[in-house]
Specification:
The structure is a single chain. The chain has 594 residues and is an alpha/beta fold. It has three domains: 48-153, 2-Layer Sandwich (Beta-Lactamase); 165-328, 2-Layer Sandwich (Alpha-Beta Plaits), CATH 3.30.70.270; 361-373 and 402-589, EAL domain (TIM Barrel), CATH 3.20.20. The protein contains 20 helices and 23 strands.
Length: 594
């Protein structure tokens, strides 16, 4: 008997185990997808997050109910064209970049790792304007690709997903350098497919080392955390902020159309940063920063080079004037490279003893002996000869090498005083210039006093010269350092008096022993311009019982004018240029014979 063409269905279980397994697997997958869909709906209803997608095959938005409601779109239409979807949306500056990305979905050219985010301003008739935040990631590696995203009201408390530890700065919680460079490389590849630019902004805090030195690293950490939060609050969500070094922060701006955008962003960041920072420890600090800017593709198309050019722009900005910003330029790069070469040379000079101390005598009118001298640091470069202190001293302060230089000067002066004493010279008191940073560095002056004691040098043989800029620092710390040195027997001279932040309050509160009249006033003696100023300084010094030293004395007329008005000591080329220790010894001996 022939078998029926269409046999009756049987209740017997299938006899093919592989087919049965496939059915079970499909049913399991179907159930799992249904559970995920249910969880998604619950999550959306609970948090107010909407879900959407764009498939590269038809380039249309697929929206869930929450997304349609937030955009003010009619119900029942789950698929809309891009233009229909965004008819109520004010496009953000990032939207041209998104548009470019969406057009690349059919060809499969987008990188799946790219995370896109932007703000959308929605205007629904009859309702108040609202700001939505949108985030999306590319799905798929082959053509056509899709874009899967979420959207939520910006005032909804959505917590940012925490980065993996390997990509996160442990102190501030910001992305670290590795993550920033990874994202920068991805975005540069994407921007090569469009006609849009992006920018790297590199921000360094001004004089952050001084905060650490004066208050300690725990408070410095509080400042960094406060700065990170402040900067993050000033940036829209699509801009990537990272901490890439000690006090260095980097910002990546994507989809830049207007070339003024990086400058406006830099100005906004510096303004936000300059507002007072109230720290958990109870202190309030003022912080400022400097920014370097490099643009893609104008400056470079390579991630490391782009960041390097931003660093060059930052270095150049610091040279010109801190608390500003500067765009990378080729001529500036050469200056930065020269400065870096000079920095390396200065470090080698410290290590290989290419530094020298020269000594300029300080003369007491009508006294037959030289009893005082100012120690002046000189750097003799093996190829360029003597480098001006006006060049390398600011460089040392900026790089932190000023402490190494300061210690070298102090040790050398101590050894030289001992050598002169052994030669039989009359006791020479040596004046040493100390920067504000070194003066206030914890332990620095204590170390110097200990060195004097170890070598048997009376503190009275030392004068510490500081400029008026030191009074801009923490007043309590300044007062403590003054008392420490004065109680030990060291006398303090206020250098360049009248050119900076002069105040009678400083003279009475901190009570320096010497006041040094700046050479800019002495040079104009007889012209009628500076005479009243110098006479006022001399009169004030006499009434406050200060010892007065005039710098830059170059003519007998200047020396006579100052001596007649009671200036206690004179210093300048009229008597001698700064000379090395050996020539200074001869100068002292010959001066005594004259």
């Amino acid at each position: 008997m022939d078998k029926p063409l269409f046999p009756e269905p049987s209740n017997a279980p299938p006899q093919n185990p592989a087919f049965e397994a496939t059915i079970d697997s499909s049913q399991h997958l179907h159930n799992r997808l249904k559970r995920l869909e249910t969880h998604q709906q619950l999550a959306a209803q609970t948090t107010g997050i909407g879900f959407w997608s764009i498939h590269g095959h038809h380039l249309q938005f697929e929206l869930d109910a929450i997304t349609r409601k937030m955009l003010g779109l009619p119900e029942g239409r789950e698929t809309l064209s891009i233009e229909d979807t965004l008819q109520h949306v004010k496009r953000s500056e990032q939207w041209p970049l998104w548009s470019q990305y969406m057009q690349l979905l059919p060809s499969g050219q987008l990188l799946p790792e790219i995370l896109m985010q932007t703000d959308l301003h929605v205007h629904i008739p009859g309702e108040s304007p609202r700001i939505l935040q949108m985030k999306a990631r590319v799905f798929g590696t082959e053509a056509p690709q899709s874009l899967l995203g979420v959207v939520w009201a910006k005032d909804t408390p959505i917590q940012r997903p925490e980065l993996p530890f390997m990509h996160r700065d442990p102190l501030t919680g910001l992305p670290n350098r590795a993550y920033f460079m990874e994202r920068l490389g991805q975005h540069l590849q994407m921007h090569m497919l469009s006609r849009l630019s992006c920018a790297v902004l590199l921000l360094d805090l001004d004089r952050f080392k001084e905060i650490n030195e004066q208050h300690g690293s725990p408070l410095g950490d509080e400042v960094l955390v406060s700065v990170a939060r402040r900067l993050q609050s000033c940036l829209p969500p699509q801009d990537l902020l990272a901490r890439i070094g000690g006090d260095s922060f980097a910002v990546l701006l994507t989809g830049v159309q207007d070339q003024s955008t990086p400058s406006r962003t830099a100005e906004r960041l510096l303004d936000c940063l300059s507002q007072v920072h109230a720290l958990p420890s109870g202190l309030e600090v003022h912080v400022q920063g400097t920014i370097g800017i490099a643009l893609f593709p104008q400056d470079s198309e390579r991630p490391n080079q782009l960041l390097g050019f931003a660093e060059d722009a930052l270095s150049y900005a610091k040279q010109q004037a801190r608390s500003g910003y500067f765009h990378y330029q080729q001529h500036a790069r050469q200056e930065v490279l020269d400065r870096r070469t000079l920095t390396r040379g200065l470090m080698e000079a410290v290590q290989h003893h290419h530094l020298e101390l020269h000594y300029q005598p300080i003369i007491t009118p009508n006294q037959p002996q030289i009893r005082k001298a100012e120690a002046l640091l000189r750097w003799k470069h093996p190829e360029k000869g003597y480098i001006s202190p006006a060049v390398f001293i600011p460089l040392a302060e900026e790089t932190g090498m000023i402490h190494l230089l300061g210690e070298w000067v102090q040790d050398t002066v101590i050894q030289q005083i001992q050598a002169w004493d052994q030669e039989g010279l009359p006791p020479i008191t040596v004046s040493i210039n100390i920067s504000a940073r070194q003066f206030l560095q914890p332990g620095s002056m204590q170390h110097f006093l200990q060195q004097l004691e170890n070598h048997g040098i009376p503190p009275e043989r030392i004068i510490i010269e500081i400029t008026e800029s030191v009074f801009l620092q923490d007043q309590q710390q300044v007062e403590q350092q003054f008392k420490l040195l004065q109680q030990a027997g060291i006398r303090i001279a206020l250098d360049d008096f009248g050119t900076g932040y002069s105040s009678l309050g400083y003279l009475t509160r901190f009570n320096p022993h010497y006041i040094k009249i700046d050479r800019s006033f002495v040079n104009q003696i007889g012209s009628g311009q500076s005479d009243p100023i110098i006479e006022a300084i001399l009169s004030m010094g006499h009434h406050l019982n200060k010892t007065l030293i005039a710098e830059g004395v170059e003519t007998p007329k200047q020396a006579q004018w100052l001596t007649e008005r009671g200036c206690h000591h004179l210093q300048g080329y009229l008597f001698s240029r700064p000379v090395n220790a050996q020539n200074f010894s001869a100068l002292v001996r010959n001066f005594s014979k004259e």
